[in-house]
Amino acid sequence: MIKNKNKKPGAVGVKKAFTLIELLIAISIFMGFMIVASNAYLEIIRAQKTANETRLIYSELRNFVDLVNNELREGTVDYFCYDPKRVEDLDFKDLALARCFDGPELTIEAGNNLRTIARDGLSSSIIKYIPPKADGTGGKLCQMRFRNSNGSWEREMAVDNGDSQNGCGEYQELAFGNLAMNDLRMEIYPLIDPKSMKGQADLASQLQPMVRMKLQVGSKLGNVKFNLRYQTSITARN
Fold first, then answer.
1. For 1, 56, 197, 229, which has the most beta carbons within 10 A of its beta carbon?
2. Are the beta carbons of 68 and 234 closer than 8 angstroms?
3. CA distance 128 to 134
4. Could you tell me the pTM of the whole model?
5. Which of 138, 127, 184 is CA-nearest to residue 161?
6. Hey, how many other C-beta atoms are within 10 angstroms of the C-beta on 102?
7. Distance between CA 181 and CA 37 in Å, rounded?
8. pLDDT tens, residue by residue, 49-94
9. Distance of alpha carbon 44 from alpha carbon 42, whole angstroms
10. What's the burial of 216, exposed, middle or buried (CB within 10 Å: 0-12/13-18/19+)?
C-alpha cells in the first residue's frame, strides 16, 4: 500500500463551498431575473386583455352597423312619415298611420333618427339617438318597432325606461356592454322619395335611398382608452 506522505495523520480534508456573500449575490440576481420575467408576463396579460376588450368594442359597433344595414336592405326609408305636410294633416286617432306619431323631433333633417319600413309594408322601425348631456344622461340608442295588423299599426314592443327626456321612454334601448356611443348622425339622401320625382323616371329608378352614418364611439371600460370616428354609407336596394 502506498501512503500519502504529505498528508498528516489525523488531518481532515476541507471541501470548497459558497460563501455567504456569494449566496446573497446569486439570490439577488435570481430575484432580479424573476422580477423582470414577472413584469413581462403581466404586461403580456394586460396587453392581451386590452386587445380582447377592444375586439368586443369593435364587435358591438359592427353589430349596430349590421342592424341598420338589415333594416335598409329588408326595407327602405319611410319617406311617408318624414313628410311634414302629410304628418300635420293626419288624424292622430288613425291607427292606420300610428307609426308616424313618435315625436316631432324625428324629422329627416334632424340627423338623429332613421325611419324604415319593410318592402311588404307589414313592419316599420324607428331608430333614434339621444346625445349625451351635461348631467351625464343620454348617449343612448333607442328603437321602436311597429307591425301592420289588418291595416292598423301597433307597437311591437313598449317598455318603461323612466324619464323619456333622459332615457328611451317606451322605446327599447339598444344597450352596449362595452361600447359608448358619444356621437351619431344619420344623414338621409335624398330628402324626398325618389319615386315621387315627377318627370324623372330614369333618375328615380337609379337613385336609391342612402343613409350616411357618422359615429364617434368610445369605451365604457375604464382601463381601455378607445376613441374612434367611424363613417359608413348604406344603400337601400329597392
1. 56
2. yes
3. 19
4. 0.73
5. 138
6. 19
7. 39
8. 878 888 888 999 999 999 999 999 889 999 988 876 665 555 555 6
9. 5
10. middle
